[in-house]
Structures are given as structure tokens and as C-alpha cells.
């Protein structure tokens, strides 16, 4: 389980990834040294090697989008951000960087040394990881130093947010989904094919349901891909931000869901009852079973449903053959979070897979833990503070870019 983050890229092979031409490089540029300047940013440069390394790093951590373009623009922005940190004297120190690497590695359930070695196996240098972490910390220090005193959230603002804004914790969303696992046969083209499919099916509700029945590996395919109403708060935050603005029938994706790629179609969004405290963590269990495409997998899923009524039953019925987690909603892996969103306590979902679909990961809801009302106010305060600081940070970066001399190598 701990190497789930890294396994898809390992299947692609190091040589293939390292030799992929960067979309933003012309043929003459590719003939230059990897350590020559691809971009000049004031008095510093970004090299072709750095862009290749950052794009590979983003691929390993499954960032969406055009990774070469994102790597280039991120590195340009970071040159400006770090220069500002140097000017203010708040560049990340060694202890901050080590703590940041440790936190980043923990997301893959690895120790820092294990994480760096695993990334090295994928061709990502340790310096690439440390630079990514250090640049982010330095920029955070800049933003905090310049704006923390201006981003004070008043009790009245919290009251207004609670009164006027739809409660995230009580809103519900209805989606349709098409989920396709990565396999050795499709790994090179799956994302582009799913992007094309999302475009073709945009606004086409009946055709989307038909396609879900034909192509989706999720259990919802039997219902035309429709997931049923689920709490909006339990949809992964990055996905939620992109789904909420959609009109009924509009599609979004492709989206990485662990070892699979999904596209979604908005079917409905509704407010729920107000006054419910926010969910602070979700307790759930995962039980690995044989693939549901096999007779053994079907039998194992049937036996699990028959034997287990609540999570505590697992200790007696399946000792050592399950894991229990208690995580904040935003920390739950995306594919598991989507499965949990439709479950009540004691219910089990069987639409999560691992190891290229050879493992059926049964996911059982144990409990949802909620905060008291005062903690709910603090959560709103933190959200408003984060949004305000993010706005200040975006504005400062725009100023830095406007004043900078940025020259791309022709």
C-alpha cells in the first residue's frame, strides 16, 4: 500500500519518461545542453534539466494537466518567489526544509529516506524534491511576513459566512462517473482518451450514461454511472472546487483517482439541512480481496457482506487482513473518498481497485466524526483566512511577474 503513489510511473519505465520531448522546446533547443538556460528570470535562469526533472516529479505525484508547461511556469514563478524571500531574509532554512520533506514523504506513508530513494528509482533527483519543498516554504514565509497582520478575520465575518454561504457540510451533490483503471496496455493513452471522451460527452446526459455502462469499471456502471446523492463535503477538495461551478450535464476530467482515471458529469447540487456541525474525520476500513472479475473475488465480496455488519467485526472475522484509518476528509485518497461518500456506517463499497485491477479493495464506513459548534466556527475562520492569504499571494506574484524581465529561449 505504501508504494501506491509510485507504482504507476514505475510501470512506464524510466527511459521512456526521461526521453519524452518537452512540449515547449523546439528541436534546436533540445540539441542544447540540458543545463543551458530555457528561461532567464531577471538575474537567474531555469535550465532544461530542471524543467525535465520537475515535470517528471509532477508525473510521479500524479499532478493533472500539461506537466511540461506546468513545470516551466512553476519554476519561473519560484525564481521570483525565492528572490523575494531573499530580499526579505526569510528563505527556508535547513530545519524547515527537512520538516517539509518529512511531511511530504508522510503523504506516501514513507520515511524521508525511503521516499527520496523511491523517487530516485523513478529518475527524480533528491535536489529536485528539496528544491520543490524549499521554494514552497520560502514563499509561504514571504506571504506570512507581508500579509498575516492584514488577514485578520472578525467574528462578524464568520457570522456572515455561516449565515449567507451554503453550508459545505450539509450540501449534497449528484454525479455520474466513468472510471477506467490504468493497465499496461492503456497507460500511455488513457488520460488523453478520457479527455477526448469528456469533451464528446459534455452536455450529453443520455450518451454519458450509455458510455458509463460500456466503459466504466466502477460499480455505478450498472446505473448509468450515477453515484446517488452524496455529501459535498466528502468529495475531495480539489475535485469539489471544479465540480461545484458546473451546470447539469457539464463534464469534468480526466481526474486521477489512485490507480485509475475518471471523468464526471454534474447531475445536481442541493443544499441540505442547516445547523449540522462539520465532519472533522472519517473512520473507515480497507480489506484487500481478489479482483471482482474473478469467481474468487465475487465469492470473497459475498462472504464479506455476510460476515461483517460493523467495523469491529473485522477484528474477530478478519484478523490481520484489514486496515483501519481515521483521517480528515481532505487527507483520504481520492478514489476511497469518493467511495465513502455514498456509504453509511457499516456499509461496504467494492469499486476501488489496486495493482492494475487485480486487487479489489473493499472499503467499509465505520464512523463520521463531527466537531462541536465552536470548532465549526474555527473551521470557517481558518477557511476565510486561507482564502484571504491566497488572494494576497496571487496578487503579489502578479506584481512580481509584471516587474520581472522574463526571456524564453527561442
Mean pLDDT: 82
Which class do the helix and strand fractions yield? alpha+beta
Number of domains: 3
Q: Count all strands and give the number.
A: 12
| CATH architectural category of the largest domain | Orthogonal Bundle
Number of helices: 16
Give the CATH class of the largest domain: Mainly Alpha
Low-confidence blocks of residues: 1-31
Measured as a percent range, the helix fraction is: 40-55%
| CATH domain topology of the largest domain | Triger factor/SurA peptide-binding fold
C-alpha end-to-end distance = 44 Å
**Main beta-sheet annotation:** 5 strands, antiparallel
Evaluate the radius of gyration.
Answer: 23 Å
Per CATH, the superfamily of the largest domain is Porin chaperone SurA, peptide-binding domain
Give, in order, the helices and strands.
HHHEEHHHHHHEHHEHEEEHHEHEEEHE
How does this model look, in words?
This protein has 410 residues and is α+β, with helices and mostly antiparallel strands. It folds into three domains: 7-149 and 397-408, Porin chaperone SurA, peptide-binding domain (Triger factor/SurA peptide-binding fold, Orthogonal Bundle); 169-270, Chitinase A, domain 3 (Roll), CATH 3.10.50.40; 279-370. It has 16 helices and twelve strands. It has helices at 7-12, 14-18, 27-31, 48-60, 67-88, 94-106, 112-121, 126-147, 155-164, 190-201, 205-215, 237-243, 295-307, 313-317, 334-340, 373-403; strands spanning 37-41, 44-47, 172-181, 230-231, 251-257, 260-270, 279-290, 323-327, 348-349, 353-354, 359-370, 406-408. Helix 5 (67-88) packs across helix 8 (126-147) and helix 6 (94-106) packs across helix 7 (112-121). Mean pLDDT is 82; it is low at 1-31.
